[in-house]
Amino acid sequence: MKIEPRTVQKERLPASAPADADPPPTGAYQEGFEARSLAVDLRATSYFTPDWRWIALLVVLIAISVVIGLLEAWPLAILVDSVLTQTPRGDWIHQIFLSRLPDSKIGQVVGLVLIGMALQIIGYAVWMSRMMINYNLNYRGTTRVRYDLFNKFQVLGLTFHRSRPQGDAIYRLSADAFGPWGIMDTVIGTSVAAVTLTVMTAILLSRNVSLTLAAFSVAPFIIWSNWRFGLRIHQRALESKQIDADLTSVIQQAMSRIPLAQAFRRERGEFRIFRGAVRRSVAALLRLNWQEQLYPLARDTVLAVGGAIILGYGGYLVYRDEFVRPIAGGMTIGTLLIFLDYVRKLWDPLKWLTEFIAKVRLFEAAARRVFRILDMPESIVESPASARVLVQPRTLTIDDVAFGYRAGQVVLAGVSAEIRHGQMVAFIGSSGTGKSTLLALMLRFYDPTAGALRLDGIDFREMRIVDVRAHMALVGQESIILPATVAQNIGYGRPAASRADIAEAATRAGAAGFIQELPDGYDTVLAEGGQNLSGGQRQRIAIARALLTKAPFLVLDEPTSALDPQHEKHLVETLRALKSLRTIILVTHRLESVVECDQIFVMHGGRIAERGRHDELLARHGFYSRMQDHSPRPNPSG
Ligand SMILES: Nc1ncnc2c1ncn2[C@@H]1O[C@H](COP(=O)(O)OP(=O)(O)OP(=O)(O)O)[C@@H](O)[C@H]1O
Ligand SMILES: [Mg+2]
Q1: Which one, out of 173, 290, 374, 598, has a CA that is 20 to 30 A from the CA of 634?
Q2: What are the sequence ranges of the domains in the chain?
Q3: Which CATH architecture has domain 396-630?
């Protein structure tokens, strides 16, 4: 089965829309206007239209199985009424069955038995095919939904991802993605139920009106028990699933803070939290189990009562029409058998019809949660006219850039700089002054609210996003380590890199030494988050990852924050050697590493307060020289 992702629906913003059109980052964001049910249903169905041939086949099979289901009781009824009797009373349906059979009684008995058996076997086979097509349709459509959703999550901006827990995305991808199929399935199932019920009622009415009314006297009870239990089971199942998800996240959190719990002797407190979550989960499961067990009890009770009514009243009718005052076309035992079979068969269609609204609502809610994400405007929008730009050394111009994460917030204002190819430049300044934010703009994680960033004069917004990012190799302020081997971690940005290239990048980053001492060297599997490495080792792996790429710009956000002076020196030497090959943009608090930079930008309050080379800035006796006074020196006596 191969399912192609549909093109990610890029909801383009009007040109005038603000760049921060992502939902506000705090708390529950407004999910905006609710699409109408019909619109949601149609959109859900559209995920299954590529499989319309399968749907057509499904409809045919459903029709066959409905007919077989309705015919199943007839061979026995015909046997009783037309074959094993002195006074055959068959009508046209009997004739259809008997016309193909031999005239002898034995031949007819054998024939009817074989027909009955064949109907059952064919019925099961059709049922099985129906189910398999059902599963396939479900998985194919749901896979399309998941592809769309996953791709959308990949392109949604950081503002989105930082504003909501990971569990939310997981839930939407794993559970909510089934919403569209749920709608399809409910609509198909209910239509089949409506048709089945109509045909069944017509057949019963044509046999005996008063007995039909008697049979339908249990319908209110069937509807009531489905309404009462069907809904409750759905609700309890959902509740239990939600509580289970909570339990999982309680366990996850507890495991992640074991070192903290041990250090602060909170083990008992942690256990209490865990115990609470387990108890809630068990209680929810029990509530579900109760409903699940009460439901069959209610069903069997109603069916037993229904059977008794048919047998009692129908039995009386047979007695009256056959023995008291025999009439032609009266009630027969065969017809009674048909009624007994059909009264049980009332259950399923009535269940579908009863639950229709509630089920559709449930699945619509899930589908809505999916579509809301798909419809979310992307904060970074690639213009349809965006040009393909070759990755090569270029000059980066920051032109009067302003930026805020929220409307009204000023993180950067009037920032201008020109960074020419082969330069090594540094952005320094106190914490919270916007250095990391500026680097994020350089990778086009966000667009500036005013001004522009350009590569060789081309505005970022006129380039493809991938091309902008291909120019930049980022070492973020937090070193991200994947649960994979050292080699895979370093090679993440260039999966095809050879082992020799990886080793060379590691050497340049000063990581080769400790990697060789790991049990399996480059093949050592690192723990999630790099828990089995030191902070400085994690950082050097992140640096190696950036060095391995061929990006012309190296963008390093405090790459030496966790390094000792010796490793820091090594890295600075590496960067110096790379100078002129690559453009190096460095953010740092360690002033020793900026001495050799071609340009130093001192940021203050989201602006560039001073700029120049080390000696020029010192001579100014401004921010920079004051920072130098406060900065720790490797050699205080000097
Ligand atoms: N995702 C975000 N949403 C809203 N505000 C943010 C976000 N990230 C950063 N900020 C705010 O923007 C300002 C600049 O943050 P930034 O991370 O750029 O500072 P920085 O200069 O890198 O600081 P540091 O030296 O501590 O790393 C800060 O006031 C911060 O609170
Ligand atoms: Mg920062």
Answers
A1: 598
A2: 396-630
A3: 3-Layer(aba) Sandwich (3.40)
Spell out a b/e string for 447-484, using b for 16 or more CB atoms within 10 Å of the CB, else e: bbbebbbbbeebebbebebebbbbbbbbbbbebebeee
In order of 42, 46, 51, 259, 367, the CA distances from 39 in angstroms are 5, 11, 20, 50, 11
The 10s digit of each residue's pLDDT in 278-326 is 999 999 999 999 998 999 999 999 999 999 999 999 999 999 998 898 8
Tokens representing residue 583 in the block: 């453009």
Residues with Cβ within 6 A of ligand 1? 25, 162, 405, 411, 431-437, 477
| Weakest-pLDDT range from 103-107, 135-139, 209-213, 272-276 | 103-107
Tell me if 309 sits within 8 A of 315, measured CB to CB: no
**606 CA → ligand 2 middle, Å:** 12
What 3-state DSSP class applies to 550? coil
Rounded to 5°, angle at Cα 159 from 419 and 541? 60
Tokens of 265: 């002797």
Q: Cα separation of 340 and 315, whole Å?
A: 11
Taking the centre of ligand 2 as the mean of its atom positions, its distance from the CA of residue 261, in whole angstroms, is 29
User: How far does the chain reach from its first CA to its final CA, in angstroms?
Assistant: 71
Q: Whose CA is nearest to atom 29 of ligand 1?
A: 432
Distance 161 CA to ligand 1 centre (A): 16
**Is the CB of residue 49 less than 8 Å from the CB of residue 43?**
no
